[in-house]
Amino acid sequence: DAKTTQPNSMESNEEEPVHLPCNHSTISGTDYIHWYRQLPSQGPEYVIHGLTSNVNNRMASLAIAEDRKSSTLILHRATLRDAAVYYCILRVYSGNTPLVFGKGTRLSVIA
Amino acid sequence: NAGVTQTPKFRILKIGQSMTLQCAQDMNHNYMYWYRQDPGMGLKLIYYSVGAGITDKGEVPNGYNVSRSTTEDFPLRLELAAPSQTSVYFCASRNPSRGDTFGSGTRLTVV
Fold this sequence. Notes:
heterodimer; A: 111 residues; mainly beta; 5-stranded mixed sheet; 4-stranded antiparallel sheet; B: 111 residues; 11 strands
């Protein structure tokens, strides 16, 4: 799997938008961009994924650069419950490709 | 829908003891995975399975064994526990169109 680069940590104020960046300059055409998050003392949780177009769901939005070498996870209004480690992972759509976790970005949310 | 269920949640083992970590999913997913997570680190893949009767090694398989006799169950066996196996263990199953579902983890301490 191609490698991703994320900041080690970020901080946000509660009820403000958060933009979590991810660089993946060696992404291949068959790689989907996945985001997972891990709340304290819990297992990872799927957030969102996309290939080329921007994606929205109830949890977040995913903005993908036109050249696909970077992406941004957007939390529209951070809450204290969003404090977690966020992982950006590249993965082909089909077949058996386990998730490869880096260290992710630790997001702190300040009340 | 229970998702992925792991038991036990906590366990303390003495060096040299053995145990089985249980994992069950009720989503009829073919792909299942076992990961371990050491403090402050990302998850590392131990073993995976693409269906009943088929398993394969991941990044860190030494000291572990798995079996997959049914679609639902994917137990992880530790034969001779060592302090280096102190970790949090997560089981996951894959929905190709959405994302992986993780269990809540088993926290294992080997003393």
